[in-house]
Amino acid sequence: MLRPRVVFGISPLLDGLCIMGIIIMIPTFSVLLWRDPGTVREARRRPLAAAAAGVDAGDGCRGDEEDATSPYMTIRDVARGAVPQEGFCGFCEIVMPDRTKHCRLCESCMHTMDHHCLFLTKCVARSNHRLFLSFVFVLAVAMAMFLANVVVYVNATYGELGTAAAIARATLRDALVLAAATLNAATLVWCIALLKYQVALVCVDRTTVQNLMFASPARARGAPCRRFSTREKLVNLIAFCLGRDIGAADGGAPKLLV
Ligand SMILES: [Zn+2]
Ligand SMILES: [Zn+2]
Asked: What parts of the sequence cross the membrane (predicted)?
């Protein structure tokens, strides 16, 4: 008869790490679900010098005076060529700040949008990108600890793992544990691949959206494809980990994510 067993209790160290991972994951996931990813609530601000000088006298049309004193850019700036046409969001009707993209699923402009996550059903953008990667990292560690626990457990219960007899006995008696371990292993591979991809992008100061844009020459519109030294990559990674805006030390990446 198949009888699922308890995996915990075999290795106190692995148990502790596993439980710690779960304890960290639950609040992290809750905050991820609750926190605003970086919805843009106001249009791009005018450059300080231009705002102080009250430039943009306009063409004498109604609204020009108000426009000239406003700290925010409007569609008039787009019409005058002060902002490229791609910088205007027709859905939100604002001049998008730098590194912004409109998400049609969230129906909002997102600051430094990385991608729209279908698991979270929300965007991963400026305010939750770091938290998202932290969550995936903790998830990967917890799953690795669970897998290690399963290996220790099977070894302790059925003898050396790897022998056909041990695997057959474990499969018969602990089918659920092995099924969970298999699912964990598959998810762990996905998490590691995702982390590797994301860290590589952070190092070169790019978001997923930008990377997809670069992959399509037709959409890249001649944006410079800059090479980063190892030191620069490290600086970008540290800046990201410290919570600074991705692209703060930008040297050539396009600012508009459209
Ligand atoms: Zn928008
Ligand atoms: Zn979205």
From this structure: 6-34, 131-155, 175-195
Same domain, 158 and 182: yes
Q: Which ligand is nearest to the CA of 109?
A: 1
Q: Give 258 Cα–ligand 1 centroid separation in angstroms.
A: 10
30 & 134 share domain? yes
Domains identified in the chain, total number:
3
Nearest ligand to the CA atom of 103: 2
Cα(255)–Cα(258) distance, rounded to whole angstroms?
A: 9
- Host domain of residue 23: 1-37+112-189
Place of tokens 């057959």: 168
Tokens for 213? 């844009």
In angstroms, what is the span from residue 155 Cα to ligand 2's centroid? 45
122 and 184 assigned to the same domain: yes
Which residue's entry shows tokens 């990446």? 253
How many angstroms is it from 115 CA to the middle of ligand 2? 7
Q: Are strands 115-117 and 108-111 parallel, antiparallel or unpaired?
A: unpaired
At residue 48's C-alpha, the angle toward residues 246 and 207, to 5°, is 15
At 44-81, the pLDDT tens digits run 887 765 555 555 544 555 555 556 677 888 888 888 88
Cα→Cα distances 235→159, 209, 239, 240, Å? 48, 21, 6, 9
Closest listed ligand to the CA of 118: 2
